[in-house]
Hints:
32% of the residues lie in helices and 26% in strands. It is elongated and about 75 Å long. By secondary structure, it is α/β, with parallel strands linked by helices.
Amino acid sequence: MSPATVSPIEEAVPGESVVCIGFFDGVHRGHRELIDCARRHGERLGLRPAVVTFDRHPLEIIRPGSQPPLLQPHAARLDTLADSGVDLVATVAFDDELRHLPPEAFVERTLAPLTPRQAVVGQDFCFGHKAAGDVATLRDLGEVRGFGVEAVTLLELDGVVVSSTEIRRRVAVGDVEGAAEMLGRPHALEGPVVRGDERGHELGFPTCNLEVDPRVAVPALGIYAGVAHLPDQRAVDAAISVGLNPTFDGHQQRVEAHLLDVDEDLYGARVSLDFWARLRSEARFDSVEALVAQMRDDVARVRRVLGRARSA
């Protein structure tokens, strides 16, 4: 399956479509229910399935400073949407003009350019200035403009609605396994490898220090089992630390990964880290020897945890 075309909505190739619209932070399992519904309508109607999304979280414009941490950077979110089985991902600039549009004008700006014959949204979908429009409003506008509307019931897992908000909460407390259950994949952080204190190499556990986008959700302080994805497509098991290095009186949060059985210069390379499981909280040790002993134990646990996960 080839990735979808990604373009600003103004540059999208004209043609009738089945469209689902949303910010889709994390492109989690609930979002994929909407996208799969659009694909089924597309097959039934012989039309291209398309996604309309925004270039930033709406709250960044509506209430600056109140926007939540993102589950994915913008580019990664577009890549995930492009690989979701649709033909087109159209981006809309969420600006001050868009936030003030009434529902009808909002539809004109965000859906009409793709000539929808069917729109797919979540049952809690709201749009337009001060969220004045809802699913019923969209259906009324669709009757006038010639498109149907399907509102998809929110997906639940164990009685909890799958949502970006709930996934962020789980990431924030370190429940990366619970987050992965809702995402359908591990939560990930990506960024260039930058120089740190190089203390890990001196201790026998060299690490990759990631410069992480400050807008992205970072798991709670602690040690995690995970997988590092390198620029040459290798996937390497890793012991990941999100912490302040309290044993050395550190105060700046860092994300660093010790790659198991790999020791090479990755400075400047972009690396992505998948968080599979939380092993323990961050701790301060009374001696370097105690820290090194714990790091050996952490590495052994990473091997066991990832081995069990892969054999499950």
